[in-house]
Design brief:
Layout lengths: L17 H4 L9 E5 L5 H11 L3 E6 L2 H8 L5 E6 L5 H14 L5 E4 L17 H23 L4 E5 L23 H23 L5 E6 L13 H6 L16 H4 L1 H8 L10 E3 L2 E2 L20 H15 L6
Parallel strand pairs: 1-2, 1-4, 2-3, 4-5, 5-6, 6-7
Antiparallel strand pairs: 7-8
Amino acid sequence: MVSPQQPIDSPFGYRSTAREVVADIDLSGKRVVVTGGYSGIGTETVRALAGAGAEIVVGARRVDQAEDVLSGVDGTIAVLPLDLADPATIDTFAAEVARKWDRLDILVNNAAIMASPLMREERGYEMQFAVNHLGHFQLTARLWPLLAAANGARVVCLSSIGHRLHSLDLDDPNWERRDYAKWPAYGAAKSANALFALELDKRGEAGGVRAFAVHPGGIATPLQRHLTMEEQKAMGWYDDEGNTHESFKSPQEGAATSVWCAVSPLLARMGGVYCEDCNIAEPVSADSKGRSGVLSHVRDEDLAKGLWETSEKLTGATFRP
């Protein structure tokens, strides 16, 4: 059963760090996959989980860069090639993980692109939807036997407050009949991430697999690579001196909610919820001007089911034990 979308009594909050979240948790023997775990909050997610004893595989499009970044992180960490816009590398990555492990305890679908110009991958799918959602859908499907084999596996899907920018149009998910706009496309892709977690949790609960959607917060990371500084200043992210807005989190703080969803005992027997600031987010109305809260369209179970069916058709991936 999908858990209520309402906050719980969490000891962590807005400024908590990933390391604080795992400070009293032993992850020895746990096996974890993190996509994009070599940049921004992905690196800090890996650092915290590996520091707590987990064995980690990082999926990376730039393997040499990932190995260089992660060489300074303590723990058992391997890097394997993974391009979420390339279906063949997704299958190869999952097969390599299956050769290495017989189960997977935690999958963190962290990698993303944001507000990119119109680009399409080899099948013609719009790149933000393809990388942020479809690639992770296929990856999760290929890793499903390993997740099902674990005792209480968790899947963490990185969404965003950007889900407020646009709902998901299943009649045109790849922007083929509409004029492309980078921010609505990003909003739709991040809505898809949250909807995927909602439906995945419903389907996985019977086998002990729970899923969570996460808004990490505003963080200055390479995710903003497609934005000019002028755009970011206009949105209030930076001032004229180049300082980030006071509401921005550090990468360590930005990784905290992902890690909390992956390991918190408070979430045992829960799932399908959208989380932020190390807690389950409060539902808010579409006209809310606040910096927190989740809109109802990513809690729409019919839309989530429709996205799942559309994703199966677009990727050819199905979930089998």
